[in-house]
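Entry for the shared binder. Reason: the reviewer on the internal report wants the predicted structure included alongside the sequence.
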Amino acid sequence: MQGMRAMFAAAVSVSLAVGPAMGSPTATALGTVLTAERAHVGDASAWVGTTVYAGDHLSTELQGSVQVRAGAARLLLLSASSATIDDKEGTPSAKLLGGTATFSTGNAHAFTLYASTAAIRAQSDAPTIGQVTLLNEKELLVISKRGPLEVTVNGETQTVEDGKAYHVYLDPEMAQGPSGAGGTQGGKGPLKAGTNYFMYVVVGVAAFATAFAVSEAFESPYRP
């Protein structure tokens, strides 16, 4: 009898110790770090092979970078950039908090990049590469390096055509400038307006080429 009581007490102890751990919520693993230099996951240094979970904060120092694979998508943060990783509705995503992010996708639903109030994603299931720079909370530079992108703000969607670079103004009044509604898109025609949510300006060829140059590290030697 005394032996049975000891066994019962031991079983209760184990169940109490294991129960809370089994019942606690666990973070969702979303991806793996492929390359890292002067980069961090939270407060820790990022290393190749580090697992990235939903809610993790990624950041890079000056001259740093970090690339993450998440399913059929890859995300690259360039120098002095930061983002939070998430999985809204079961789809990998990231919220760009500062700097520049380049992403590639294998299909239209593989990944969404959020920046301020905008959501940027691939328009089609064809291989797509996009780059977004958060200039401030009301301005973005969105570049389609391969395949068209969709930029959505409060239900309004605009397309960034393949090979185009758009300066997106989330506040239409900012895009008007001193010239009002007669403003120009890099000196090449009138501004193209949406409804009340955002306007965009097509960036000139020189700025476009510069923005593309900084993302070459994303394609070589780790091209998606």
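Summary line for the report: The two ends are 66 Å apart (CA to CA).
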